[in-house]
Give the backbone structure.
Amino acid sequence: SAAQLADVGSADAIHAALYGVISGPAGKQRDWTRLRYLFAPQGKMVAVGTLPNGATPATIMTVDDYIARVTKPFAEAGFYETELNRTTESFGPIMHVFSTYEARHAPGDKPFMRGINSIQLHHDGARWWISSVLWRGEDDKLALPARYLESR
């Protein structure tokens, strides 16, 4: 569709679509077809967390694994993720975006989480694809560096 093509026509558009598709009020069904369209067929979503012993394992997911993981929490609470800052590096058809985010349960709420989304993109000559998104939230032992909080 034209709307889908608009989502992948530029790096900025695919980036905005990624944040837009996962955000919404409690109980609102997200457009998972749209999310799947943004990702390369073998694209991954990777969450990095911290265990009580200090280990930082990665949970590597397909887009469908991610959907299964967030369906219940998104049904129970609003989730609005917005970008605070972006650092971009590119070489020809590949791009890496370090995107500082914050998340709220409702648009006017105080953020309950901040972190970094590391987003890898590639352009195949016709459109942009997300190859992977790797993220890590900030916690009491890992604060976001000031350079990733500065205004864009």
Remarks:
- The chain has four helices and six strands.
- The chain has a mean pLDDT of 94.
- Helices lie at 2-7, 11-22, 32-38, 63-76.
